[in-house]
Write a structure and sequence with these properties.
This protein is of the alpha/beta class. It has eight helices and 13 strands. The chain starts with a strand and ends with a helix. Its cofactor is [4Fe-4S] cluster.
């Protein structure tokens, strides 16, 4: 059981079951607050063997150093983080993914997850990852021919890969929502509920200007208003305004909710943010504190 202390109260988390208990009746003194985000995501590599037209990840061969990752994972665990996520690019193309997951599971109390398109997982990798991963997110946009058009891979082959993924850990579906995929949304929720997914994360596509389609968001709201399925739904917090959500946290500092490190070692508030702070060979938590300080200085100078 991992215990986190912050402005929201005392947060208890069991990485093996995914159970969360927030005791918000308890007031935690500021000097006792955890100083790491609840969750930190790392883009292990920018390499990916798919060419999805709507993917915003940089197209280069950058990847994070293994020793940096070990140091950052240890640091955020001691700082009160509850989970660490690995992405990319395609994280299963990172040569030491299984070793990294093992390190995080054995040496920390963090819940370990990664996001994958699923096609590179082999039986041997499955055996290496068993017991060292607590949740897997599978990126699947559309069903059948829609998926094959967008991802350039066989949908039937994907379903075979899902059997390997199920043998590693519980899994959820990440679903990019755009004009191509929204017609399948109801069927997608029903299909993946039947396949044993534990959640559906809906990610409305962001355009080149960092904007969401108003029409897509309206149709998403209509879907959510009428949804009667049992598969838990999640949405991107950036587009949650006006949508029915459950939000138990009241974070005055968003950097203590989530942080992202890209494959070039740049620390960011989110994966969508441009720029960032280079923390290669440095402390992640000190980087967060510096970003917060710089933001406060900008506000004070306005």
């Amino acid at each position: 059981m991992k215990i986190r202390y912050d402005e929201n109260g005392v947060h208890l988390f069991n990485r093996n079951t995914g159970a969360n208990l927030l005791i918000d009746e308890l007031s935690v003194p500021h000097d006792k607050w955890s100083n790491a985000p609840r969750h930190v995501s790392f883009a292990l590599t920018n390499i990916c063997d798919l060419k999805c037209a709507y993917c915003y990840a940089p197209k280069d061969r950058s990847e994070l150093e293994f020793e940096d990752l070990k140091n950052w994972i240890t640091e955020i665990d001691l700082g009160g983080s509850l989970g660490v996520g690995f992405g990319g690019g395609e994280p299963t193309l990172y040569p030491r993914l299984a070793e990294l997951c093992n390190f995080a599971t054995v040496n920390t109390d963090l819940a370990v997850s990664f996001t994958t398109h699923g096609h590179r997982i082999t039986a041997a990798m499955c055996e290496q990852l068993k017991g060292n991963v607590h949740f897997i997110r599978v990126s699947v946009d559309g069903l059948g021919s829609t998926y094959e058009k967008l991802r350039g891979r066989s949908f039937d082959t994907l379903l075979g890969q899902i059997q390997l993924i199920k043998a590693i850990a519980p899994f959820g579906i990440n679903y990019v929502l755009n004009a191509d995929t929204i017609p399948d949304l109801i069927q997608v929720a029903n299909f993946w509920e039947q396949q044993g997914a534990t959640e559906l994360l809906i990610l409305p596509e962001i355009d080149a200007k960092g904007m969401f389609s108003a029409d897509i968001l309206l149709r998403l709201k209509q879907f959510l208003d009428g949804y009667t399925g049992k598969l838990p739904l999640r949405i991107n917090e950036n587009c949650a305004n006006g949508l029915p959500i459950a939000q138990p946290f009241n974070d005055t500092n968003p950097l203590l909710a989530y942080a992202f490190v890209d494959a070039r070692g740049m620390l960011k508030r989110t994966s969508y943010q441009t720029g960032g702070m280079d923390i290669t060979g440095k402390s992640l938590i000190q980087g967060l504190e510096l970003i917060k300080s710089q933001s406060e200085q900008l506000i004070n100078h306005k």
